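Homework help board

Subject: predicted structure for assignment chain

Our instructor gave us this sequence and asked us to write out the predicted structure in token form, then describe one feature. I got the tokens but I'm not sure how to describe them. Can anyone check?
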Amino acid sequence: MSHIDRIDVVCTARRHNRWVQLAAGIACMGLVANLQYAWTLFVVPMDARHHWGQAAIQLAFSLFIVTETWLVPVEGWLVDRFGPRPVVMGGACCVALGWLLDAWAPVLPVLYVAAVISGIGAGAYMARAWAPRSSGSPTGAAWRRG
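My token output:
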């Protein structure tokens, strides 16, 4: 295999890898968007079961949105410092832990902590983690999916 052939293989692999990253990013946004768009479906059943009050339960959603959006600059700094892979993996772990806590929250403060944890995780992939060279384009393309 000549030098030119090796370069061509590397370029093709990188191009393929970027498409895989874009697809994974869109999938991640779709999974987290389900939490955002479907949250109101869970409020009434949670209130019926725990009698916390709908306004108190909705505060958890507000905490999720605030931590998801306002911590993105910090998470972007973490991407610059440590690279995208550990930030995305940490974000995935945070989202998974937050969802588990959401499912089994025995008291309202646990629901609030779960919202903050999952908000941190949801913001982690938005922090240009899956496309460091052109972060705006893939994020915009992913949000225009619907």
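Reply (TA_rk): Your tokens look well-formed. For the description, you could write something like this. DSSP finds six helices and no strands in the chain. That's the kind of observation they're looking for.
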